[in-house]
């Protein structure tokens, strides 16, 4: 992710004080911290393949101790009665290290269409380097495991610190995987919100 604020142009002969440098850094990091991006929607239907529905690309060596990354996918889900789905939060892409897993979760005993989903991962860098460590909180808001519009929350987290090299670029992803393939089992992640705090 590039710098999002226009950098200050320093004037020849200008006295550079700690206050000026700190103000410039504050402006740059505030712009980066407030970055919100969206991507094209992704549909997962009629497949049992684990599929990326949201991605946040972390540049090599960007993570520092205490860096927090947030990735959110939300959209609609339709399914046959008692369909099952598994959500995973990974670092390093679809074949990367699993940070947290939710499911398999069994849907309502009554098939439904266009129910809402909201899945979010919060990931913090605990240590940096080739053996850098990470910890994640992963949760879902949903209203599709029961008939009607009953809201529920599902929570998961890392089982302790997870090791992944911070000196290399890493894709932080949310994936979805149906237990059975059916044209009626479909979800569309309509928007992705990415943040670096």
Structure overview:
The protein is mostly beta strands and 197 residues long. 8% of the residues lie in helices and 49% in strands. It contains 1 helix and 11 strands, in the order αβββββββββββ. Strands 1, 3, 6, 7, 8, 9 and 11 form a 7-stranded antiparallel beta sheet that branches. The N terminus is likely disordered.
Summarize the entry for a quick read.
With 197 residues, the chain is mostly beta strands.
Q: Keyphrases for this structure?
A:
disordered N terminus, 197 residues, four-stranded antiparallel β-sheet, mainly beta, 8% helix
End-to-end distance: 13 Å
Shape: elongated
Radius of gyration: 20 Å
Major sheet characteristics: 7 strands, antiparallel
Whole-number mean pLDDT: 83
Helix content: under 10%
- Please trace the helix and strand order, writing H or E for each element: HEEEEEEEEEEE
The parts where pLDDT drops under 50 for at least 5 residues are: 1-6
* Overall strand count: 11
Structural class: mainly beta
The amount of beta strand, in percent, is over 45%
Helix count, DSSP H or I runs of 4 or more residues: 1
SSE arrangement:
Elements: H1 18-33, E1 42-45, E2 51-58, E3 68-79, E4 84-91, E5 97-106, E6 112-127, E7 133-142, E8 152-157, E9 162-163, E10 170-178, E11 186-196
Antiparallel strand pairs: 1-11, 2-10, 3-6, 3-11, 4-5, 4-10, 6-7, 7-8, 7-9
């Amino acid at each position: 992710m590039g710098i999002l604020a226009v950098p200050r142009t320093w004037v020849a002969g200008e006295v550079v004080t700690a206050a000026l440098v700190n103000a410039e850094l504050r402006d740059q990091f505030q712009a980066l911290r407030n970055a919100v991006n969206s991507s094209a929607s992704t549909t997962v239907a009629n497949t049992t393949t684990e599929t990326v529905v949201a991605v946040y690309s972390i540049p090599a060596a960007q993570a520092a101790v205490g860096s927090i990354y947030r990735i959110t996918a939300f959209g609609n889900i339709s399914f046959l009665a008692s369909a099952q789905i598994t959500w995973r939060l990974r670092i390093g892409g679809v074949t990367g290290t699993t940070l947290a897993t939710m499911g398999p979760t069994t849907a309502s005993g009554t098939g439904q269409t266009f129910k809402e989903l909201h899945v979010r991962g919060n990931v913090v860098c605990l240590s940096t380097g080739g053996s850098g460590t990470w910890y994640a909180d992963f949760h879902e808001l949903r209203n599709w495991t029961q008939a009607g519009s009953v809201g529920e929350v599902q929570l998961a987290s890392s089982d302790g610190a997870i090791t992944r090299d911070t000196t290399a670029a890493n894709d932080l992803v949310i994936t979805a995987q149906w237990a059975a393939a059916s044209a009626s089992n479909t979800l569309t992640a309509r928007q992705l919100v990415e943040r670096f705090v």
